[in-house]
Every structure is written in C-alpha cells, then in structure tokens.
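We now fix the convention by which a protein and its fold are recorded. The integers have meaning only within a learned vocabulary of local backbone shapes. A complete example follows; check for yourself that the lines match position by position.
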Amino acid sequence: MAKSLGRHRHGLVAGLVLALAGCASAPDYHPPQVSLPANFAGTGPWVPADGSAAATPTDWWTVFGDPVLDGLEQQLNTGNPSLAAAVARHDKAAALLRQARADLFPQLGTSANLTQNRQSNDRPLRGATQPDYYGSQTVGLNGSYEADLWGRVRANVAAGRADAQAAADDVADTRLQLQAELAEGYAVLRGQDRIIALLDATVQAYAQADHMTGRRFAGGIANAMETGQSATQLAEAQAALADARNARALAEHALATLVGAPATGFTIAPADRTLALPQVPVGVPSTLLQRRPDIAAAERRMYAANRRIGVARAAFFPSLLLGGQVGLQDTALSDLIAAPNTFWSIGPSAVLTLFDGGRRHARVMQARAEWDAATADYRGRVLSAVQNVEDGLSRLHHLGDEAAAESHAAEQAGNVETLAMRRYERGAVSYLDVVTAQTTALRTRQKAIEVDTQRLQAAVRLLRATGGGWQDGRAAAGAPKAG
C-alpha cells in the first residue's frame, strides 16, 4: 500500500512539473495570415513560398548585359561600408546566439585560495587553543547546471537563433538594396552619356547653322534677327551640354561611394550605349514571398518575439540549479595534497522570487507587445511588397507605351527639322520655323532617352521588389524557417 501511494505521489509530482512546464513555454507559433488578392492586376496568380526553392541569385544584374556594371557590382560586394556594417551586425547576432547556447551545458570552474590569517582575540566562540595566526590553503573545482524545466534556456536559444537568421537576411536585403541602387545609378550615368552625345552633336549642328546664317547675313540674305536666333540656339545647347556633363559627374561620384572608392580619381569611361531591357515574365508575383529577404527577416523576428514570451513566462517558476564542489583544504601548503584534506559537496538548489512589485508581469506584457509589433511589421512588409511589384509592373507597362510614342515623335520631329532647314535654305520659310523645328526635335530626342533611362530604372526596381529577379531558382524567403 505504501509503495502504491509512493508511486502515485511521484506520478502526481511528475504530472505537476509537466503541467507547469506547459504553462511556462512560449505560445504555439503561427505566422499571421495576410489577405492577398487571388490574382495581381493584369498578371498571374499569387503563389506563397513553400520552402523548397533554391537560393536567391546573387548576380541578377547580369540581365542588363553590361560588363562594366558587372565589375562595379562585384566591387560593391567587397568595398561598400554599409554592407560591411550589416555583416558585422550579423556576426554580433551569431555571437549572442553562441552565448545563449552556452546555458545548455554545465558550467565548470576552478578556484584557489592561499591566504595567511589572524583572528580576533574577542571573536565569538573562539576556543582557548585556537592560534592567533593560521593559514588557509584551498584548491577546488566547482560546477553547476540549470535544469531547464520551464524551457527558459531553450526558448532563449531559439530566439537567439531566429535573431541570427534575421541578421543574415538583413545582410542579404542590404546587399540587394545597394546592388539595386548601383544598377539604377549606372543606368542614369549611361543615360547621361547618351544625352551628352546628343547635345554634343546638336552643338555641332547648331554651330554649322549659326555659321550659315552669318554668311547669309553678310551676303544680305538673312537679317540680324535670324543671326540672333541661331546664336541663341547655339548658346542654349552649349549650356545644356555643360549641365548634362555636371549631372554625369555627380552620378559618377555617387557610384564611387557605393563601391567604396573615393570620388576623387574615380572614373567610368563614357559610352553611348543602351543597357539591355530584361523581359518580364507573366508569373512575376508568384516569386514575391520566395525572394524578399526583408520579409524573411521580419518573419524571423516575429518568431524570436514569440519565443521570448516563453522566456518571460518562465520567470514565474523556480530556477533549479544542480551544483557541486570538490577540492583540497589545509592550513599548510606542504600538506595540502592528502586524502584527509579532501572536501566535497553536491546537491540541487532552487530560487523563486515571491514578490517583485509586478516586474515579471510587466516583462510578459512587454514580450507580448513586441510580438504584436513584429506581427504588424511582417504584415506591413508583405503588403508593401505587393505594392512594390504592382508599381513596377505598372511603371514598366506605361513607360513602354510612352517610349514607343516618344520614339515616333522623335522620328517625326527629326524629319520636320530636316525639311525646315532645306526650306529655309531655299528661302521658303523664316529662320523662326527652323528654330521651332530644332527645339522640338532636340526636346523629343532628349525625352526619348530619359524615358529609356526610366524604363531601366523601373526594371531595376522590379528586380529589387521580387528579391533579385525571376529566374527558376527561388529562395523561400517568406516561408517560416525551422525554429
């Protein structure tokens, strides 16, 4: 009967411990559901990440087919200070994780205490035969281990692991942002090269026209108004050329800073060429959550906040430490190493805070508030990602229509410019008609180049919005990772 009662007692205690452990653990983790459209406007269906895709491509910018851009992107990966700072923050998070993991193992230490002492003559309970002076030589080994009954240590390790994963995703996101910024800046630089080439040719053409009106004025064919108009056209084109060269210099300086080089002495050779515009497939939105490292980081931080609720809950239960100590102790160092001088102690100890003025309750409330904030941040990032993709698709679509219209307008304006100059040379029209045709032709040509640059920038932003492209290999950035 006594044995039966003992077994019941032990079972009751074990059940109580398990029940308390359940109370102290973190809540079940369920990422929030974000309401998303079944289809994006004008494109394919939404497909959330399933965790089975490959890594995000690291050379997505090669779709533009420019070797100079390829070299600059590689230089950015090794020289950009902001990226180096993100890597350092990841290293810090990894170090904090290792610190948290250390609590999973026993802690061992050693100590030595070699002292000479004098005791007071009036020390309470001092014996008559005790000496005034005595030595105390102690060498010991001690150890302790926290029995993680309530899951505090495990939850803290899980939170640290999620923080380290989030920091790694932050590195990927920082790298992607900087790479996209560099690609956009390079597109602007090449757009300025095209505008400079256009304005340089325009200055030469206007200079020839000004020379022609000067000859006609000397021959009595043209009047002073016409020579003034041609001179004005030439001066304005020269001013626009100087402004374009300044804009190119500023774009070049920005690229230098991005790749981690001083702006002084950094040069990129001018080239009057257009980057290849990538073709956007229909199913771009289906890769969104599978590519965005910022969404992945937000999800990991949400998981870490969930685990820290468990850490805060565990503070309401006693901490159980298993400790022990063994060593040697004697009054003289010469006789220290001897079997009779051995001492040891072993046993558990428990600590429970009974009253703390509500501090533990406040920490649980804080942990829950951090979970709510992380959840809201995750939902916001997903919604922003959808907007980014929609904006990119819309921008590319409408800029494509605008580019086609501007190209046609530039072609027609060029024909009108040629016709106006021929008719002026034959005396059929005034030079004002030539000026009007030239102004229109230059404006439409320059606008066509600007729209081409905007299309390239829009393509870069869409690549950024989809986490680095839309190739077959996709990283499961939006899928919950293993805790």
About this structure: The chain has two domains: 31-104+151-313+359-465, 106-121+129-147+318-351. DSSP finds nine helices and four strands in the chain.
